[in-house]
Design the sequence.
């Protein structure tokens, strides 16, 4: 169980938990970030990530990535 | 009866492309989430005239019906309040799972839904298969395949949508949630919603279950009813060990996964797409910024210097000047003739030696004349002589006077010059044509003055820069349409965050370099109100297309077209944004971290030529329209203001009125003291600055190149800085007012911009004067005080409110 920020680029990982305020959590949910879902980090730009989630690319900042716990 | 059909779907799923195809309108289609910020209505082609009117409403893209950004609120409110007769839900076939998330919510609204699966050609190409019949059965609504870009399947789609709208059959959502969720929903319907029509109940029950503030507010519920349903929600949350919103979200995705398993067959899995490969390079930790810098330098270099200058020269000297050679036919013959003429008549030994003598005597401008003779450049010689010829004649009692040596007529024009019209295909410029026409019909002198100097001159000065703007607009449209724009926001986020703005603020600024109005409007994609306000306030610091002429004018007139003037203007704009960002963050109203960055990155694709040209034309046309309306009007006012005036106590009209005597001059004279600490307290510069509020292009209209006489370079640059940073034109102020949605905030934004511009300009002029050796003690003291204040604000620690939020974050 590690924050998404520490996960490896290119490997398939699954979301264990999403922390944070309701509003951002809801928005992440509508973009396809749900607990149990599988994601892949496409690119790492100094902590800001591009993540492949449900076949789309979503860019998220480091603060946001820290709230997503993966394994 | 007229039918209203809404077009809803995820951002960037092709709604606007479909809208254009169905209504025949010409909206620009960008490739970044949030291109459409306002709903647009259009009548459907071929259906409106035949029977009833069918109106299609293009909504901004949304991911769900729980609004996050302002544009999502627009869409949701439209669907809930205006209840269209049917919804066309366009979904991206290559990304079914995420797109269906919105579909599961739309079908709960009780409005007939038709699902249009877009980009099926891409799906088929990748070898995947989608069974639309099965999908239709699962969802309980019609599903059709379309390709909005190629116009395939859209006739069938619209027929289905009209049929669904006319049938009035309420949509019933086919999916159900987990038993305990359904139990809670039933209780909520029972307790609160039982007297509402049945088709509205499901959606509202789910929203109440999710504790949606806006729905609770809308229903105006009693506190005891709320606490009653709160009990149901809590029970369900405890049972499933999650909060209610997450429960619904994952229930929806579970349901979607079950449908997709039935009707979608995927062939290749886990392979890197082209887009991923490109992203690996352009968003790479080390390469991202250099690549971005190179792209931007290319864009502005080409549009401001090379192609842009060529286009502007043609427009100013050809179209709105004497004329030009069609396709360049005959221009080289003409150039040869001019060279020969100069060789025979001008570049003679005695003239060269006179100029050399004048240069040794240190007469201003002689060096330029000498250089022109050495280069055998007649154009440069003519220009230098135009500027400094009098100087040579007056000083030294005509010892260096060239007048008698040069072949000049009584007006001081060169005689026997080769006529460009004799060579090749010569097209005369508009002013020449108009003048000939007016002379032919014996037009009165004053009217000729009004038309030639007032209208053609004023409007022409502005229109002359349109080709250059079009070049810039092509580049911006390409960046938007290919998908790189969204990456720029991502790349810049890391940097922008350091001074309190989100990476999303960069898109408004980039678009603002074309025109501030769409730039300010593009700020809507920013979720956080504080970030959005700050972006609106600072976006117009970036030089827009209309400010390019001012930069070009100052660079040409005072800096001999030195290369660094134009880039320095952009740099000044960026520095103003950064400094303002940091300073404003230190104030109470803006304190706090920018909202975390989350943005979908679309797949790259090569934009169509039509789409790019459409965007270029749309933006260019609004400039041209302005030239025909507001600029036309103000050109006439300026002309009248400069030709009417009081001479020797009598109110008179004269085409050769001295500026000081004219109405315009009197006004400028009364207020020019405001700008004298900035070095340009003269009448012309003052009037130009005021006219800049009407439209920035007008600054150029007021000034001619030669009118900068007497202005130092330093004052010129201070003038440039002030005009770039101060309040934008009325159109942009209007946009700021709309987006701020508050007169107080609008006033604050405009006041801030003006004060900031004044401060920067003051520092440039007063501190610069020290180095120029003409310091003014009082001015310098003020300038240093301003500088100290800004530096203090930059290094002052952040407000306590900020620290608090950091603390809470650690706790969470």
Sequence:
């Amino acid at each position: 169980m590690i924050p998404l920020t520490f996960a490896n680029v290119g490997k398939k990982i699954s979301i264990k938990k999403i922390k944070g305020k309701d509003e951002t959590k809801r928005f992440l949910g509508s973009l396809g970030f749900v607990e149990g879902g599988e994601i892949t980090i496409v690119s790492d730009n100094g902590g800001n990530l591009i993540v492949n989630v449900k076949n789309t690319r979503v860019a998220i900042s480091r603060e946001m990535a820290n709230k997503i716990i993966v394994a | 009866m007229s039918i209203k059909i809404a077009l809803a779907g995820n951002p960037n799923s092709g709604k606007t492309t479909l809208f254009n195809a169905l209504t025949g309108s010409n909206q620009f289609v960008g490739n970044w989430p949030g291109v459409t910020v306002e709903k647009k209505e259009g009548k459907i082609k071929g259906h409106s005239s035949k029977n009833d009117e069918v109106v299609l409403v293009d909504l901004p893209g949304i991911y769900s019906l729980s609004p996050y950004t302002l544009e999502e609120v627009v869409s949701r409110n439209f669907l809930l309040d205006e209840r269209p007769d049917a919804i066309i839900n366009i979904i991206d076939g290559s990304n079914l799972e995420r797109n269906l998330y919105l579909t599961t919510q739309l079908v709960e609204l009780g409005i007939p839904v038709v699902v249009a699966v877009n980009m099926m050609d891409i799906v088929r190409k990748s070898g995947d298969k989608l069974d639309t019949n099965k999908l239709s059965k699962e969802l309980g609504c019609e599903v059709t395949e379309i390709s909005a870009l190629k116009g395939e399947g859209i006739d069938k789609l619209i027929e289905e949508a009209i049929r669904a709208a006319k049938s009035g059959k309420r949509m019933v959502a086919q999916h159900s949630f987990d038993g305990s969720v359904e139990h809670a929903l039933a209780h909520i319907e029972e307790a609160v919603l039982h007297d509402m029509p049945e088709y509205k109940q499901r959606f509202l029950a789910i929203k109440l279950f999710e504790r949606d503030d806006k729905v609770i507010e809308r229903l105006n519920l009693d506190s005891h009813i709320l606490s009653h349903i709160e009990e149901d929600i809590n029970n369900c949350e405890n049972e499933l060990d999650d909060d209610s919103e997450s429960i619904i979200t994952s229930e929806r995705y579970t349901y979607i996964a079950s449908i997709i398993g039935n009707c979608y067959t995927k062939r290749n899995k886990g392979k890197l797409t082209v887009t991923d490969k490109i992203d690996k390079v352009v968003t790479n930790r080390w390469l991202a910024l250099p690549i971005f810098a190179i792209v931007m330098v290319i864009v502005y270099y080409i549009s401001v210097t090379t192609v842009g200058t060529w286009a502007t020269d043609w427009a100013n000297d050809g179209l709105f000047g004497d004329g030009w050679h069609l396709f360049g036919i005959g221009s080289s013959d003409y150039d040869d003739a001019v060279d020969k003429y100069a060789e025979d008549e001008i570049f003679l030994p005695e003239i060269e030696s006179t100029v050399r003598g004048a240069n040794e005597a240190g007469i201003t401008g002689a060096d330029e004349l000498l250089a022109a003779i050495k280069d055998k450049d007649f154009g440069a010689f003519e220009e230098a002589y135009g500027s400094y010829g009098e100087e040579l004649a007056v000083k030294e009692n005509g010892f260096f006077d060239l007048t008698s040596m040069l072949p000049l007529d009584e007006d001081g024009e060169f005689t026997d010059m080769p006529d460009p019209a004799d060579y090749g295909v010569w097209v005369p410029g508009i002013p020449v044509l108009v003048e000939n026409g007016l002379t032919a019909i014996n037009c009165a002198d004053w009217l000729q003055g009004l038309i030639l100097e007032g209208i053609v001159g004023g409007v022409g000065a502005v229109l002359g820069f349109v080709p250059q703007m079009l070049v810039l607009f092509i580049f911006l449209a390409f960046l938007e349409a290919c998908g790189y724009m969204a990456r720029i926001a991502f790349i810049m986020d890391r940097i922008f965050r350091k001074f309190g703005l989100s990476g999303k603020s960069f898109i408004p600024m980039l678009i603002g370099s074309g025109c501030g109005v769409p730039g300010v409007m593009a700020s809507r994609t920013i979720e956080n109100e504080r970030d959005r306000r700050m972006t609106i306030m600072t976006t117009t610091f970036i030089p827009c297309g209309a400010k390019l002429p001012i930069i070009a004018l100052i660079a040409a007139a005072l800096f001999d077209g030195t290369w660094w003037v134009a880039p320095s203007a952009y740099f000044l704009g960026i520095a103003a944004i950064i400094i303002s960002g940091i300073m404003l963050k230190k104030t109470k109203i803006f304190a706090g971290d920018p909202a975390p960055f989350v943005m979908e990155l679309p797949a790259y694709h090569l934009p169509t030529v039509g789409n790019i040209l459409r965007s270029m034309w749309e933006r260019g046309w609004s400039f041209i329209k302005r030239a025909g309306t507001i600029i036309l009007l103000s050109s006439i006012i300026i002309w009248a203001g400069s030709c009417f005036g009081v001479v020797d106590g009598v109110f008179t009209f004269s085409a050769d009125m001295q500026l000081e005597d004219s109405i315009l001059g009197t006004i400028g004279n009364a207020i020019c003291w405001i700008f004298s600490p900035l070095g340009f307290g003269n009448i012309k510069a003052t009037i130009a600055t005021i006219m800049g509020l009407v439209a920035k292009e007008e600054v150029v209209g007021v000034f001619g190149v030669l009118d900068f006489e007497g202005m130092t370079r330093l004052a010129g640059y201070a003038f440039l800085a002030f005009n770039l940073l101060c309040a934008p034109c009325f159109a942009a102020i209007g946009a700021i007012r709309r987006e701020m949605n508050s007169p107080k905030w609008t006033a604050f934004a405009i006041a801030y911009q003006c004060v900031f511009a004044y401060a920067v300009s003051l520092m440039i002029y007063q501190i610069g004067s020290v180095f120029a050796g003409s310091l003014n003690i009082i001015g310098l003291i003020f300038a240093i005080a301003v500088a100290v204040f800004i530096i203090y604000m930059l290094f002052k620690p952040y407000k306590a409110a900020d620290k608090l939020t950091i603390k809470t974050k650690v706790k969470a």
Summary: Chain A has one domain: 2-70.
